[in-house]
């Protein structure tokens, strides 16, 4: 079952070819064998997972199974799950057992899915390589000397190494899509507001968005069906009627015939996505994918995203500003880590934060506090917000001429562990293509489209207009029916 799609697993469960308990045990055994090396999971809890699996089996026996009932799903350790350690990859929360469920976890529980474990991540989701985790780096299953991407690197690795059939992630500036690209899987960040942020540890609240990671667009659609939905406890949650993201995947693009299922689809290609900084191997794989889309009937439209080069600097003002505010709650008083020795209250705050946060998180808090401080607010923070608006306008203009925008997800394939840790700017530049959709609140996904240097995977980035997830997934599904990049698994896996 390790290579099976969610639909195949659901069919096997429904036909009683396997029970949820057996299935969950098989994945737990596999995690037991491989996680010591890959480090994709921070927490597994056999007893808890199997208890949920038994409930799922009873529900299947009663005949009221939902599509994901009985299927074990891995959750990024940023989602609060009742009774589970929810560390967010940080020493600060290394003793935090959540007393409640995030909305996303509630939805998976309601669907009867099994929590397989909590996946490793960059500390507080700050990073692009999973190397800032308090729990140590995650390895890329395609080559263990390389990073899996981040910050949802544990979830990406778990899917790529077939340790989990599906996983959740979060994406503030690329944390679902960049690790999906570097690990050779499919991942989607929905429109901002689609997935509730309730119970999702906050990094930069105006950018954070939960999403799904899986082996294929079809699997991602099934996961998104469970995750998405209005939640009154998140003030930015969008009240929209439920959509079935998986229902219409196989249908051709509006009006197209079966032989050329994507006829009529206009793909926007931006010059800015193929300029300096893009590695030749990535460019070649992406161009190959674009040619495949043309074979499927799509046409190409040249578009411009002139302000996209401003996105990284704007993001690294806005995201740290919000983070500095969000992370002020970690003071050693109410929950989480507290320094063991201190003189007085102020000393306790200082020592707790000095000991509990890692270097990257401290860097962001310092930058964020600085750009929000009197005298710098207008020069940095307000200016960044204006750039954000301009970037959203660029996209709006582009979407008047095309249906989807395609390009590379990341400028390079996975890089060696340790190679960028001492150069934050190089690390930040990894997200040059993924950050603009977060700034605009647009949905975006990455899907496998080839291999580059060192036989490492390349991701194709697909950006859609607001609420176009169903269309994006359909287009991705047609690509995956015509190609087999997404079916390739790392050697020895
Ligand atoms: N890599 C980016 C950062 O470090 C994005 C992280 C994310 O999307 N959570 O902020």
How would you characterize this protein structure?
The structure is a single chain. Helix 4 (103-110) links the parallel strand 2 (72-76) and strand 3 (114-119). The protein has a domain at 6-252 and 442-487: Amidase signature (AS) enzymes, CATH 3.90.1300.10. The longest helix has 22 residues, at 377-398. Helix 2 packs antiparallel against helix 3 (46-62), helix 9 crosses helix 11 (359-371) and helix 9 crosses helix 12. The chain contains 15 helices and 11 strands. The protein has helices at 6-14, 20-38, 46-62, 103-110, 153-160, 177-183, 217-227, 280-295, 311-326, 345-356, 359-371, 377-398, 424-428, 435-440, 469-482, and strands at 41-43, 72-76, 114-119, 167-171, 186-189, 209-214, 266-270, 299-303, 404-408, 444-451, 457-464. It has 493 residues and is α/β, with parallel strands linked by helices. It has an 8-stranded mixed β-sheet. Bound molecules: glutamine.
Radius of gyration: 21 Å
The total strand number stands at 11
Mean pLDDT value: 97
Strand order of the largest sheet: 4-6-5-10-11-9-7-8
- CATH T-level fold name of the domain at 6-252 and 442-487: Amidase signature (AS) enzymes
SSE string: HHEHEHEHEHEEHEHEHHHHEHHEEH
Task: Identify every distinct bound molecule in the structure, by name, code or SMILES.
Answer: glutamine
Name of the top-level CATH class of the domain at 6-252 and 442-487: Alpha Beta
Helical coverage, percent range: 25-40%
How much beta, percentage-wise?
A: 5-15%
């Amino acid at each position: 079952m390790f290579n099976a799609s969610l639909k195949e697993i659901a069919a096997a469960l429904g036909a009683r070819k396997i029970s949820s308990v057996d299935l969950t045990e098989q994945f737990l055994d596999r995690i037991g064998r491989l996680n010591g090396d890959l480090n994709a999971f921070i927490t597994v809890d056999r007893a808890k997972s199997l208890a949920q699996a038994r409930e799922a089996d009873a529900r299947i026996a009663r005949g009221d199974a939902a599509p994901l009932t009985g299927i074990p799903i891995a959750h990024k350790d940023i989602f609060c799950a009742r009774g589970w350690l929810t560390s967010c990859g940080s020493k600060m929360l290394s003793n935090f057992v959540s007393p409640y469920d995030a909305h996303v976890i509630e939805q998976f529980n309601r669907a009867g899915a099994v929590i397989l474990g909590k996946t490793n991540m960059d500390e507080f989701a700050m990073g692009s390589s999973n190397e800032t985790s308090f729990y140590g780096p995650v390895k890329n299953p395609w080559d263990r000397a390389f990073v899996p991407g981040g910050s949802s690197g544990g979830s990406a690795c778990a899917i790529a190494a077939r340790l989990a059939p599906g996983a959740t992630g979060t994406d503030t500036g690329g944390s679902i899509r960049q690790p999906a690209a570097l690990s050779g899987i499919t991942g989607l960040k929905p429109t901002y507001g689609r997935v509730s942020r309730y119970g999702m540890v906050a990094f930069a609240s105006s950018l954070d968005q939960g999403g799904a990671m899986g082996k294929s667009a079809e699997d991602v659609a099934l996961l998104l069906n469970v995750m998405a939905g209005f939640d009154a406890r998140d003030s930015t949650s969008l009240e929209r009627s439920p959509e079935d993201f998986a229902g219409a995947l196989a249908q051709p693009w509006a009006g197209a015939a079966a032989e050329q299922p994507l006829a009529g689809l206009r793909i926007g290609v931006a010059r800015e996505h193929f300029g300096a900084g893009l590695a030749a191997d990535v460019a070649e794989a992406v161009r190959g994918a674009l040619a495949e889309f043309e074979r499927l009937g799509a046409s190409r439209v040249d578009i411009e995203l002139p302000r996209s080069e401003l996105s990284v600097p704007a993001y690294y003002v806005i995201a740290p500003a919000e983070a500095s505010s969000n992370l002020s709650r970690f003071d050693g008083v109410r929950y989480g880590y507290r320094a063991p020795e201190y003189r007085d209250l102020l000393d306790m705050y200082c020592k707790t934060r000095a000991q509990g946060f890692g270097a990257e998180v401290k860097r962001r808090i310092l930058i964020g506090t600085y750009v929000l401080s009197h005298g710098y607010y207008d020069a940095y923070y307000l200016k960044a917000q204006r750039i954000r608006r301009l970037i959203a306008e660029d996209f709006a203009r582009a979407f008047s001429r095309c249906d989807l925008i395609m390009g590379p997800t990341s400028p390079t394939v996975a890089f060696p562990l340790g190679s960028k840790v001492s150069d934050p700017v190089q690390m930040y530049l990894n997200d040059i293509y993924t950050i603009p959709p977060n700034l605009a609140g647009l949905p975006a996904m990455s899907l496998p489209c080839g291999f580059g240097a060192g036989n490492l995977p390349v991701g194709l980035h697909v950006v859609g207009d607001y609420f176009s997830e169903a269309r994006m997934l359909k287009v991705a599904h047609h690509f995956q029916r015509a190609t087999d990049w997404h079916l390739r698994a790392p050697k020895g896996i």
